Amino acid sequence: MSSNKKQLADTALSVLDLVPVLAGKTIHDSFTNSLNLAQQAEQFGYKRYWLAEHHNMAGIASSATSVLIGFIAGGTSTIRVGSGGIMLPNHAPLVVAEQFGTLEALYPGRIDLGLGRAPGSDQLTAMALRRDLRGAGEDFPENVQELRNYLGPHDPTARVRAVPGEGSDIPVWILGSSTFGAQLAGILGLPYAFASHFAPTSLHAALKVYRDSFQPSEQLQEPYAMACVNVVAADTDEEAQHLATTLYLSFLNVIRGTPNKMSPPVESLDEHWDANERYAVQQMLRYSFIGGPATIEQGLQSFLDETQVDELMVTSHIYDHAARVHSYKLLSEITKAVAK
Length: 340
Prior knowledge:
Shape: globular
Helix content: 40-55%
Largest sheet: 8 strands, parallel, barrel
Order of helices and strands: EHEHEHEHHEHEHEHHHEHEH
Structural class: alpha/beta
């Protein structure tokens, strides 16, 4: 292997949290678990902790994303906290600039702003959020630029200002699951994060488009790509496979359109899905790494060999909170052991 290949030991690790609502638990429990996980991730050496915006989903409690970012940032001290992402068509750019300008003022140097153009919900919910769906996705590039202008240096001629917001040095990321966001991130010279944890099909094409179209900017001189993957790590392969039944059940709910609360693991999935559903779920979860330390290390290094991404963001659909924390701890220990 050539020396310029990405190595797991040298690759930054981050966390994506959907703030799952567990069957038999409350939403308050979800928030408490997320704060504890963020505190543990900070101790384990993770670089950033992002929260995803979703709406009208019984199993996900991260709809008020900017509020939760403040909650997590307030309970930690060094880890970067941000959005993975804010679904910009749901919000006026000025409102996002004010919210994140406020967060940056409260927690300077620790806030990331990841932007996506999907609704993070179904069309009916998107209508309830936006009131008007005309141009919602098509206006994304213009809305990104408008938002960046609000966060830019003070303009004495501007009649509308983001206060707080203007002059804040908040890193802006473009998120995507297709080549659209990849090209936009490249042209604007912004870091790019791909959602390979649920939309693996366009990963390689999007990374190529991003790198080929990249133009240096004040924020970034060279392309910087991050990919999000599913990881379920445990002490043994068998235990990890058992814990991962929760992940499969969660995505089975997605393809059925039944977004229930997160279920505890089951002994067998055979009685829960048919062959077609199993195939669909497995295709969505192509970039899922499940197993003991050796299996996880081998799988993630192979993923780095394929993609050469600069950072790995990890999401772990694990029902038991202690097991979820342990999964992130094991992953951090794997990378440290590889580095020795």
